[in-house]
Design goal:
The protein has three helices and no strands. It is mainly alpha-helical. The termini are far apart.
């Protein structure tokens, strides 16, 4: 039964890491595009700079949760809780950033 809890913890932690890295990647993409636009991209660049803390925090928490999966069953349960929380925050932050800068259709 311990292996099943560990498997669930690893899967949740990996999904959380992917969500957090997706947010970091999207912010990097926006920052690059804003930098190429010069002064007209300044508002986007300012917004991206304000979001780096959230992206870094969720990435760190996700990686910490992944690290916790190498422990016992108790740490696996803690890892599931940390990974689920950080993954949810990263996904919501990514979605709000995408909605803010969505263009065309």
């Amino acid at each position: 039964m311990d292996w099943l809890v560990n498997l669930i913890a690893v899967i949740v932690a990996l999904a959380s890491v992917l969500a957090a890295l997706g947010h970091v990647g999207y912010l990097a993409l926006l920052n690059s595009a804003a930098g190429k636009r010069g002064a007209s991209g300044a508002p986007v660049g300012q917004y991206v700079r304000s979001r780096w803390a959230v992206a870094g925090g969720t990435t760190a928490a996700s990686l910490f949760a992944w690290l916790l999966t190498s422990g016992g069953t108790t740490l696996d349960i803690v890892a599931i809780l940390v990974a689920a929380g950080s993954g949810a925050v990263a996904t919501k932050a990514l979605q709000s950033t995408r909605d803010r800068y969505r263009t065309g259709g």
